[in-house]
Amino acid sequence: MEDDPPEVDNSKPLASSFSIHDACEITAIEPSRIRFIEQEFKEFFPGLTHGAGFNQAELDLMGEIHERIFRKGERPDDVRRELRGKREGFRTIAVTSGKGGVGKTTVSINLAIALSRAGRRVLLCDADMGLGNVHVFAGISPRGTLMDLLEGKAAAEQILSPGPDGMQVLCNASGSSRLAEIDPRALERLLRELERIGKSFDILLIDTGAGISPHVTQFLAAADDIVIVTTPNIASTLDAYGVIKVSREARMRGRLHVVVNQAEDEKQSQAVYEKISGCAERFLGGRPSNLGWLARDPAVEEANQARTPLLSSRPEHPNARKLQQMAGALSAAGAPSRAAA
Question: What is the pLDDT of residues 231-254, one digit of tens each?
């Protein structure tokens, strides 16, 4: 359950975040060449420009660029053009729920970590308008919030905050009535900006608010994959079906997935999934995929209260392994064709 969060402790270092000095040692590339690549290809290293480090995927990319330019003699413009073409296939994954307090933000953060560890360049956006708390549970200090972006005080690149395992985070304000009352046109501008900066990453993961308000459904409509978090609670189950119903009726392009959280065991989680998917098949003509389940366990809330995500603090925990499996299933699904969407 997502209780009122404590203050953020920023004393703990972030895992798998490498400085330029680290990059030189790991890749054996000369510092001058690292600087050249970072400047020439800065759109592919957005976090580094604003003080964040590299993750492993970015180190691999640095090595690829170095190989092609300095050893194979390819032109930087040709390499840049090809890399841009690959980035056009970035995916947007929205994590949502029909009801609050089901662990949606916990799932979002840990999925983002798992995807980053799998070599994906991940941007996590806290899109819970007015009640954002990703930065709290991820244990980071925001460089800015979406309010700065909406008010024109900063570009998206300027408010990127480094998160665990090299991912980047666009944080949101908590308790802001102005964000909660954002008008549709401002929200459209925000979505366009997210799509623009998202192309510098492999995955844009959006932690939406709960429910089916226009603020939530606009983010869902922009997603390639929609992950719906629910629990065995009957109200949560009904609300999860409500999200599926709205997405189907609005003909959203996103593939639907269900995660059952806080289950007593696999049998209970399967019963919840079957109840939701059975109704969806009967009344809406299609079933969402079963992405997986998470057990009710105090370790999850303990990780939240410690501001250290479960995958960072207890990577061998059964729920941490389940979250890694969910990330693997999402990765295996591949990116849908945007032209066909």
Answer: 999 999 999 999 999 999 999 989
Q: What is the dihedral of CA 244, 199, 209, 216, to 10 degrees?
A: -50
Q: And the tokens for 140?
A: 């980071």
Look up the domain containing 180 and give its range. Answer: 89-333
125/169 Cα distance (integer angstroms): 6
| pTM for this predicted structure | 0.77
- Within-domain flag for 9: no
Are residues 206 and 104 located together in one domain of the fold?
Answer: yes
Report CA-CA distances (Å) from 229 to 106, 210, 258, 261, 299. 10, 10, 6, 7, 18
Looking at the structure of the chain, the number of domains it has is 2
Give the three-state DSSP class for 66. Answer: helix
Length of the chain: 341
Question: Does some domain include residue 338?
Answer: no
Listed in sequence order, the residues at least 6 apart from 210 whose beta carbon sits closer than 8 Å to its beta carbon are 96, 97, 98, 99, 100, 102, 104, 128, 216
